[in-house]
Specification:
The complex is a heterodimer. Chain A is mainly α. Chain A has 11 helices and 2 strands; from the N terminus they run αααββαααααααα. By secondary structure, chain B is an alpha/beta fold. Classes of the chains: A mainly alpha, B alpha/beta. Chain B: It is an enzyme of class 3 (hydrolase).
Chain lengths: 279, 315
């Protein structure tokens, strides 16, 4: 048997659909998380947006409202409202905005075009981005939590931790996938910041992030509750409230996030297929 | 019989109102450096992208290493390397990190250090891709195209933007690859590049191949007349020249200011006659040159085809 024949038969074996090939791709995805992390922390713009920006808001609002309580919420300390709110906002920045910008930059620079010439499946590369994004989200959240507690005396949830974790996980996964889909709306990195801010900033203002909207008009509430940021903020605020009993799970908020997660998965799938499309 | 590395028969591809590729056929043998030449819009890129699996052909038979590139099989992408003209890069990663990362995606990657040495970037291995000069980026592109140890390498204008020194380096690198038995599919605008690198050249115009052959013989280059040029001293006229051999293939033309252009099929004999006469008669002829038409001369003639070869489809 000649060398070429041996070689091609080994290829067939390696790519027979099966768990071996999938395991190899999952291992590659884990490597991609590491490479994407390395890229991320070296690009200062992304790190500033994801970590420094929400931290700055925490410092400002925390200082301005020291010792304040919210009457419409039964005397809840403002900081116990604000820390989960700003975490929800940070999740939006680190997952939705940042992922949309990353995907746009990859497309604009022609990295995705080069990827298509390699054997790496596009989904493995995207999985690396998703994994890295979730990691950044966890780091950003942890920093906000530590600073909020240490400097502003926020309450750390204990028995409601399941509510915090499940709401965060569902919300960040949904928004990451939506961010990948949103990259299709962004034509260039130059205009990207503007476009994404146009999407997220108005939603942020009606989503109980910076201040409680108690007593806002019903129609505004209805609009706000249709987007994923509001149920994420509400769900986290419920879990952070020292008066909450039980596991801190708000089922209707989780349900809205789950619907967005499904929608995000569909949109992401279509985006990846679109990236691979040929004419 | 060995299977061709690339086999294309009667390839067609049409965009809305433009027939970009109109019936192209060629084969590339394993180990060969094949160069596709042609003006912008000739259909080179479309043909290349179909071979790379980035575009789908309308009709025709296309096989790359025995596979149909349209099927986009991973096993084919394992065996080809592609150096795109404008391929982006993860600019925050260093050269060493990029070569390592891209290498992981292949089953049998080449060692990182070996590749970095090959493209002569060892001094910059820890430099981020975003900080490289244009020529260094292009060499990184070449390294990434080779990282999977491909049997077939696509090079799309590999030295555009290089300074002359860097081009020479890149050429010797590519030449060295051919020594390893790799097949190279090259597209370029540079005649000297095609001349230096290619074993075989095909010229594409208006979606069709108009000529194919070795750099020395393409377009009947080896059969074209020799051109001999020189100047006569002031006062001397064409009438002083001796009778020249070559019969009717020899023509003598006064190019003004004492310059004389002679074209002939009998290059050696005519050169001998002119120089012998000049020495015997003591005529100080100057600026003597004897030249075969260059590849560029042939290329320009081939690509100056009348407009009817382009396939504008009436709407």
């Amino acid at each position: 048997m000649n060398a070429a024949a041996t070689r091609s038969s080994s290829h067939v074996a390696a790519h027979r659909p099966g768990t071996g090939a999938l395991r190899r791709d999952l291992r590659l995805a884990a490597w991609q998380v590491r490479y994407t992390q390395r890229s991320f922390w070296r690009s200062r713009r992304a790190a500033v947006m994801s970590i420094a920006f929400p931290l700055m808001f925490l410092a400002i609002f925390g200082s301005l409202n020291t010792g304040e309580t919210i009457d419409t919420r039964g005397g809840l300390a403002f900081i116990d409202f604000f820390v989960p709110g700003i975490i929800a906002y940070a999740v939006t920045l680190t997952t939705f905005n940042s992922t949309a910008m990353t995907m746009t930059a990859l497309r604009e620079r022609g990295v995705l075009k080069r990827l298509r010439t390699t054997p790496l499946p596009t989904w493995v590369y995207v999985a690396g981005i998703v994994g890295s994004t979730i990691l950044v989200m966890v780091i950003s959240t942890a920093i906000l939590l530590v600073v909020g507690t240490a400097l502003f005396g926020a309450h750390i949830p204990t028995h409601t931790m399941p509510g915090v974790l499940i709401t965060l996980a569902l919300g960040s996964v949904a928004m990451t996938m939506l961010g990948i889909g949103a990259s299709r709306l962004v034509t260039s990195t130059e205009s990207g910041m503007g476009v994404l801010t146009m999407i997220t900033l108005p939603i942020t203002f009606i989503s109980n992030v910076f201040y409680p909207l108690d007593g806002a008009p019903g129609w505004l509430e209805d609009i706000a509750k249709a987007f994923p940021l509001r149920p994420l903020a509400d769900g986290l605020q419920h879990a952070f409230d020292p008066a909450t009993t039980g596991a801190g799970l708000v089922w209707h908020d989780l349900a809205v996030l789950a619907v967005w997660a499904v929608a995000g998965a569909v949109i992401m799938r279509r985006t990846i297929r679109n990236l691979n499309a040929r004419d | 019989m060995t299977e061709p590395a690339i086999d294309v028969r009667d390839l067609h591809k049409r965009y809305d109102d433009l027939q970009a590729v109109a019936g192209v056929s060629f084969t590339v043998s394993p180990g060969e450096v094949f160069c596709l030449l042609g003006p912008n819009g000739a259909g080179k890129s479309t043909t290349t992208e179909i071979l790379e699996g980035h575009r789908l052909a309308d009709s025709g038979h296309v096989r790359v290493l025995g596979h149909d590139p349209a099927a986009s099989e991973r096993s084919l992408r394992e065996r080809i390397g592609v150096v795109l003209q404008a391929g982006g890069i993860q600019e925050e990663l260093t050269i060493a990190e990029l070569v390592e990362m891209y290498g992981r995606w292949y089953e049998r990657p080449r060692p990182v250090d070996e590749l970095i040495d090959l493209v002569q970037l060892d001094a910059r291995r820890d430099t981020r891709a975003g900080d490289l000069s244009g020529g260094q980026r292009r060499r990184l592109d070449l390294a990434l195209g080779l990282v999977g140890d491909p049997d077939l390498l696509f090079l799309d204008e590999p030295t555009t933007g290089f300074d002359p020194h860097a081009r020479r380096q890149a050429w010797s690198t590519i030449r060295a690859l051919c020594g390893l038995g790799k097949t190279v599919f090259l597209t370029t605008h540079f005649m000297d590049e095609a001349q230096y690198l290619a074993d075989r050249i095909a010229v594409m115009v208006g979606g069709r191949l108009v000529a194919e052959g070795s750099p020395e013989s393409i377009g009947g280059r080896d059969a074209l007349p020799t051109e001999i040029r020189f100047t006569l001293p002031a006062g001397a006229g064409l009438g002083g020249l001796p009778d020249l051999p070559g019969g009717s293939t020899t023509t003598v033309r006064d190019a003004g200011d004492g310059a004389v252009h002679v074209t002939t099929q009998a290059g050696l004999a005519v050169t001998h006659a002119i120089t012998g006469w000049a020495l015997d008669a003591g005529v100080a002829i100057g600026q003597l040159s004897v030249a075969q038409p260059t590849l560029e001369d042939v290329y320009l003639r081939l690509t100056e085809q009348p407009a009817d070869t382009t396939q504008e489809v009436p709407s």
